[in-house]
Amino acid sequence: MKESTGTGSGGAREPIGFVGLGAMGAPMARWLLSRGYDVIVSDLNGKAVEDLVNHGARAAATLTELASAASTVFTCLPSLGALRKVALGPEGLQHGTSISTLVDFSTTGPAFARELGAALAARKIDLLDAPITGNVVTAGNGKLGIMCSGPSATFGRTRPVLEDLASTALLYLGEENGRAQTLKLLNNLLSATGMAVACEAMILGVKAGLAPEAMLEAINASDASSSATRNKFARSVLARRFDFGARMAITAKDTSLAVGVVEELGVPAWIARRVQQIWGFAASQGGAERDGTSLITYLEPWAGIEVEGGRPAQATDSPGAARLMERLVGAVSATLLAVACEAFVAGSKAGLDPITMTRILGIETGRNFASSHVLPEQVATRKFAYGKSLGAALSDLDFVADEARRLGVTTWVLDGTRALYRLAAGLGRGGEDMSRLATYYEAWAGAEVRIPPSCHEEQGGRA
């Protein structure tokens, strides 16, 4: 391995490279500059480079020049193809004379991370795959979550810089490249599902005459809350601004990668596959470069209605309206539980314990009641105490499906959830606690979601 001096905060800091100044990369690089780092930047977008130079960065004329000036280089790129070209291309980082460590913040999937790690190792360059979770705000204030996998010595050398970027959570998941990618994709799957199912529920509710603001309030006060309903709907969807800051093409790419990982691990992707189809459809219909919050605009035409804030409720405060609201909340909650089951069982098969997973899935992006409480606190401890039965969840889903058919609304994801719960209820007992849905996934996948003994011991020691 090429020699590398430290990038830590103590003493003089050597230059670090940063390639990829997009929606997340640019604020991350600016934050590092504000923390006193000597940052050399590169991006195809000249204006993005100019902005960073104005903040104190140095610009590299070529990738090889950058990798000849910095031993540690960070990348934050939108696609596998872009990363492959930047790292391994004929004028890529691998040809630099100083680079010894590449820290990749991109979401690429575990297979590509392993492939890239092997290719770089042949050039005596260590890879730390370090996907991030957060948003443009937390990217610019050092409050990201970062999960890392790769050589432990490399993690140790780069840890001070990573800690400056990730005060919310910094996890090291082991020597093997790709484990961090698996966890990141599962996190993004939960986020993408939250948006997709919230869109369906809001469209159906508005078509039935419910006020969207009232629906959002009810959802966020319940187990159906997700990052989409908490952070995106009021600001970007109901206001019809569609400007949260993440391109739809990225979410479509990530959900496709997530489905591939889940299925490769032998876990049925009942919900994940439908979520992938929704995002893929919207991206293919012209939405790829639009903000991800515009997903709803590709589903609304199927119902012949728009979900817009300030829309007066057509339904009165009748028992029927209240019943529909309650059933929609139940159906969305059931969907979020199901996809959390897929994520945690897949994580278990990949060697990720539920406590470690929750440290990322419990951060805002992938956080819902199921991912932050039900799976780690009930399923992993075998308590199964959600307090609602599989049969009751199926009743909610049946009610919503009947209402959707009556109103002519397509509910692609919710219909998939209904089929899953009907299958589970048919295989077992409808009176089983709803959280026992996870045990069916465990049986299908041949893995259990359990807290490992080491975590029990650690918790006992802290107590």
- Oligomer classification: single chain
**What is the general shape?**
globular
Largest sheet: 6 strands, parallel
CATH fold call of the largest domain: N-(1-d-carboxylethyl)-l-norvaline Dehydrogenase, domain 2
| Number of alpha- plus pi-helical segments | 20
Give helix and strand order, one letter per element, not per position.
EHEHEHEHEHEEHEHEHHHHHHHHHHHHH
| Highest CATH level, the class of the largest domain | Mainly Alpha
Please identify the structural class as seen in this structure. alpha/beta
Write out the CATH superfamily name of the largest domain.
Answer: N-(1-d-carboxylethyl)-l-norvaline Dehydrogenase, domain 2
In round numbers, the mean pLDDT is 93
- The end-to-end distance, rounded to whole angstroms, is 43 Å
Radius of gyration: 23 Å
Instruction: Name the CATH architecture of the largest domain.
Output: Orthogonal Bundle
Query: How many domain regions?
Result: 2
Give the total of beta strands.
Answer: 9
Estimate percent helicity.
55-70%
Poorly predicted ranges? 1-11, 457-463
Strand residue percentage: 5-15%
